[in-house]
């Protein structure tokens, strides 16, 4: 027998002999060139909980074990769990690997103490008072030569009503998570062609990547030089393909060594649709309930937002108008709520589908489509004409589905709810940025529930009005003033139409806007003809002409899309670009980034009251703040991914960069003092040193 | 954005350099090595025969695993006149697995191995030409000198003898197919084992 074999067998014997049972830890198992123990982060477990086990390796100096992709040779450590029924164990949560050169080969693995964490779940139905965990572990420990080992570990943990953490090992688990790569939400794709592995990762900010590790085995030639380049918000990776490459996996983990430590993301094969695969493991019930409440509150506040106001006024009028019984009012309120909630859920579904097909669609995307903007302007204009009395959209008038209202009030209420949501969506972004960002990263059902909660919050005032007759009684009695009020309410609609046309003009250019205005005139004629016809002062021909005019006005919106236009420098801001931001931050300049869109009223209000003011300009000058502004009016993928970096799906977003400090996100609603206060606070933490 | 992605990807691909890695379906890299008897062999000498290359290192636990009987069984099974089995040692002098001629022959007889020759590749030139990475690491070259299989000996990368019976015998299947005039499937697999001590 060779020396090696003797060593090997004696190692195995030693391992079997030393395994002993003790709570929280299996005790050390000594093998050749490595000792190992299995440790629990809990000393007492309770049914229904998740807990962590750490396989703690301490190899001799310069001996190493292997990562999930061991590289050119070697073998990844594997754990075979033997668990009671119902108890499950997740995959190993690997530490960030290092490259170990064995010229001409390269391995990926770990030197020094190494902690491999696995998460286990005790089912809620677990009855036993003890949980016996057995693990059969295979590892290969190498320096120049390699020694495989196999060991069994056993833990016996009491299961009681209260879970108790194992305090002795808290530090060990903290160390373990410090050594793991931090998951980031960057999207990346790869392909293997022409002898090269190539990947592109959407990375708005250069994280200064120095090395990368692919978790897929036999994909790259591990010893070949890595080409890493960051260009224009994209990280490009290249490496020679592995000689033994045979099949491209659909997706695998990628670890990037960045200046701020290792980060972890998923790389998808180019042919695979970019669907963030979300498992229930990423899903926390408590977070989710919190977000539901937050979403409902956000929805409630939406009623006060400027872009909801016209619809709100429509609905308020309708309720005032209603001569219905309390019973009927309740029904109307319920139908309205249904309209709001279903529309939110539908919009969310569309958003999820858009995400799934890999488009950088953000919230408010329906206003990024000029055709939709133009049609909405037309709709609001026609509603306004109806309010002004040019023609009647039924007797109650509320939405495009309004002709049903007289006979079927429920349907009218329902469509009012729908309209409220369509107009409100750009306003949801400012208020709901966080919740939306959260929802977008959740499993589809959880995300839909969040949006439903948003709708519920928005509909809540009307439900209250219906169920709280006292509240309704506080509303003024119907009378002649109502006709006046109705006519007055036309003007907010006209203003909304003007605002939408302005957005349209920004998107499509002056000529297109002029054509849309011609379309409005045609619509005006059509509505007038329609009104005449309603008053029996015109024949069927004019109805036909009216329809032709409507068709003509819609046709005018098919103006060829103008080329992407740049944000003109209208105020003291510079145009945002990833390079410019990076450059300024590198130069140690304080920077304010303002992400905005023309259709975002909150953004414009913030700029008006808080950024473009003399006091804010003075503060910017005082602190030598550079002001970068990004325009998201049309979809801009660079800005979309910048937003995602801050878990946001919409604008506004204000980020303040102060040298030596992490980027600070300012609130979405700015007050005149917000900027100055933030600057004062940051400068007191770290005074600005100007190099002059 | 999609377009930009496609452009940057294709730019990357066109920048791909030519790489002289061995490829199944191409001529196998030529070699000229001396065996444990002092005789030199080149690939061209074996035209008309199917050639097996087996990289080895007798101290490597993965080699030990397969020399528990599996490797000898394969050498015996395919030990016909049509097949030339060459065991190659690329360990550099002073590194694990490097042996003298006498030691090599002693290992052959003590392990009841039956290769046609044990070749020494101390400089590692041949090993690197084949991109041989591990021990064991298997290659099959057909009668025309075309590489038909490269990779692992079987499908379960472990050092445990028990796993041999459970594994898919990639190399054995490939050699059987090539001898029958068929392409190996799979023709490229993951080599596993110790790194070759170049």
TrEMBL record, chain A:
GO molecular function annotations of the record: protein-disulfide reductase [NAD(P)H] activity
TM stretches of this protein: 288-312, 333-358, 370-393, 414-438, 444-468, 488-504, 510-529, 541-559
InterPro entries referenced in this protein's UniProt entry, alphabetically: Cyt_c_assmbl_TM_dom, DsbD_gamma, DsbDN, Thioredoxin-like_sf, Thioredoxin_domain
Domain Thioredoxin: 553-684
UniProt name for this protein: Thiol:disulfide interchange protein DsbD
Intracellular or extracellular location(s): Cell membrane
Entry membrane topology: Multi-pass membrane protein
Keywords: Cell membrane, Cytochrome c-type biogenesis, Membrane, Oxidoreductase, Signal, Transmembrane, Transmembrane helix
EC numbers, comma separated: 1.8.1.8
Gene3D superfamilies: Glutaredoxin
Organism: Rheinheimera soli
Domain of life: Bacteria
Signal peptide: 1-23
UniProtKB/TrEMBL annotation, chain B:
Database matches in SUPFAM superfamilies: Thioredoxin-like (SSF52833)
Signal in keyword set: yes
Pfam family, one: AhpC-TSA
Lineage: superkingdom: Bacteria
Native source organism of the sequence: Rheinheimera soli
Thioredoxin domain sequence ranges: 22-173
Keyword terms: Signal
Annotated PROSITE patterns: THIOREDOXIN_2 (PS51352)
InterPro entries cross-referenced by the UniProt entry: AhpC/TSA, PRX-like1, Thioredoxin-like_sf, Thioredoxin_domain
Identification of the protein by name: Peroxiredoxin
Signal peptide location: 1-20
């Amino acid at each position: 027998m060779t020396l090696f074999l003797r060593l090997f067998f004696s190692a195995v014997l030693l391992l079997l002999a030393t395994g002993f049972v003790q709570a929280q830890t299996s005790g050390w198992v000594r093998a050749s060139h490595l000792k190992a123990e299995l440790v629990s982060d809990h000393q007492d477990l309770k049914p229904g909980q998740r807990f962590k086990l750490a396989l703690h390796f301490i190899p001799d100096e310069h001996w190493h074990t292997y990562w999930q992709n061991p590289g050119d040779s070697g073998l990844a450590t594997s754990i075979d769990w033997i668990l009671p029924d119902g108890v499950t164990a997740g995959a190993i949560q690997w530490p960030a690997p290092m490259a170990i050169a064995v010229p001409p080969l390269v391995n990926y693995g770990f030197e020094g103490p190494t902690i491999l964490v696995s998460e286990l779940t005790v089912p809620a139905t677990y009855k036993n008072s003890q949980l016996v965990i057995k693990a059969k572990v295979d590892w290969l420990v190498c320096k120049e030569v390699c020694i495989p080992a196999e060991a069994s570990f056993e833990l016996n943990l009491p299961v009681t009503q209260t879970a108790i953490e194992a305090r002795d090992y808290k530090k060990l688990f903290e160390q373990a998570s410090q050594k793991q790569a931090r998951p980031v939400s960057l999207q990346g794709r790869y392909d293997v062609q022409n002898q090269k592995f190539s990947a592109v990762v959407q990375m708005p900010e250069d994280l200064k990547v120095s090395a990368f590790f692919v978790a897929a085995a036999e994909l790259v030639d591990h010893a070949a030089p890595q080409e890493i380049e960051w260009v224009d918000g994209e990280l490009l990776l290249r490496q020679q393909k592995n000689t033994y490459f045979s099949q491209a996996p659909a997706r695998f983990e990628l670890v990037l060594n960045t200046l701020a430590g290792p980060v972890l993301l998923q790389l998808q094969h180019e042919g695979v649709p970019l669907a963030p695969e979300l498992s229930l493991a990423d899903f926390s019930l408590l977070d989710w309930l919190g977000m539901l409440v937050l979403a409902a509150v956000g929805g409630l506040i939406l009623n006060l937002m400027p872009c909801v106001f016209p619809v709100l006024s429509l609905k308020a009028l309708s309720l005032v108008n209603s001569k219905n019984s309390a019973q009927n009012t309740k029904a109307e309120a319920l139908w309205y709520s249904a309209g709001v909630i279903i529309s939110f859920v539908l919009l969310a579904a569309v958003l999820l589908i858009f995400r799934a097909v890999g488009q950088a669609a953000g919230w408010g995307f329906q206003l990024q489509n000029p055709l939709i903007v133009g049609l909405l302007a037309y709709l609001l204009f026609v509603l306004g004409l109806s309010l002004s009395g040019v023609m009647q959209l039924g007797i109650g008038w509320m939405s495009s589905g309004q002709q049903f209202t007289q006979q079927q009030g429920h349907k009218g209420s329902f469509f009012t709810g729908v309209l409220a949501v369509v107009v409100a969506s750009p306003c949801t972004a400012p208020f709901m940025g966080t919740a939306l960002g959260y929802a977008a990263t959740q499993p589809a059902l959880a995300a839909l529930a969040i949006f439903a909660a948003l709708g519920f919050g928005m509909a809540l005032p009307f439900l209250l009005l219906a169920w709280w007759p006292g509240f309704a009684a506080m509303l003024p009695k119907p009378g002649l003033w109502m006709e006046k009020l109705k006519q007055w309410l036309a003007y907010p609609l006209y203003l909304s139409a003007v605002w939408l046309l302005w957005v349209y003009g920004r998107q499509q250019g002056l000529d297109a806007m002029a054509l849309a205005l011609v379309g409005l005139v045609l619509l005006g004629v059509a509505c007038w003809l329609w009104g005449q016809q309603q008053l029996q002062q015109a024949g069927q021909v004019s109805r036909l002409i009216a329809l032709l005019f409507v068709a003509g006005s819609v046709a005018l919106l098919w103006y060829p899309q103008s080329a992407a236009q740049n944000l003109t420098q209208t105020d003291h801001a510079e145009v945002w670009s990833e390079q410019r931001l990076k450059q300024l931050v590198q130069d140690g300049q304080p920077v304010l980034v303002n992400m905005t869109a023309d259709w975002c009223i909150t953004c414009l209000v913030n700029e008006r009251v808080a950024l473009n003011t003399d006091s804010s300009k003075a503060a910017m000058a005082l602190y030598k703040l550079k002001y970068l502004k990004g325009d998201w009016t049309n979809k801009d993928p660079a800005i979309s991914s910048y937003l995602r970096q801050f878990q946001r799906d919409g604008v506004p977003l204000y980020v303040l960069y102060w040298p030596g400090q992490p980027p600070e996100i300012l609130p979405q609603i700015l007050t005149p003092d917000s900027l100055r206060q933030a600057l004062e606070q940051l400068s007191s933490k770290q005074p600005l040193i100007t190099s002059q | 954005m999609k377009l930009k992605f496609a452009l940057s990807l294709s730019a990357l691909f066109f920048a791909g350099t030519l790489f002289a890695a061995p490829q199944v379906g191409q001529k196998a890299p030529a070699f000229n090595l001396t065996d444990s008897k002092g005789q030199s062999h080149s690939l061209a000498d074996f035209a008309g025969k199917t050639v097996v290359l087996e990289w080895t290192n007798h101290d490597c636990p993965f080699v030990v695993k397969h020399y528990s009987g599996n490797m000898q069984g394969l050498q015996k099974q395919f030990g016909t006149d049509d097949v030339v089995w060459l065991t190659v040692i690329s360990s550099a002098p002073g590194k694990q697995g490097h042996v003298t001629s006498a030691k090599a022959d002693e290992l052959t007889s003590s392990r009841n191995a039956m290769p046609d020759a044990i070749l020494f590749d101390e400089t590692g030139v041949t090993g690197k030409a084949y991109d041989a990475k591990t021990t064991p690491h298997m290659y099959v070259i057909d009668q025309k000198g075309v590489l038909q299989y490269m990779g692992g000996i079987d499908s379960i990368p472990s050092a445990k003898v028990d796993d041999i019976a459970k594994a898919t015998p990639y190399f054995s299947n490939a050699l059987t197919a090539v001898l029958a005039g068929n392409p190996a499937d799979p023709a490229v697999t993951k080599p596993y084992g110790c790194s070759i001590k170049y």
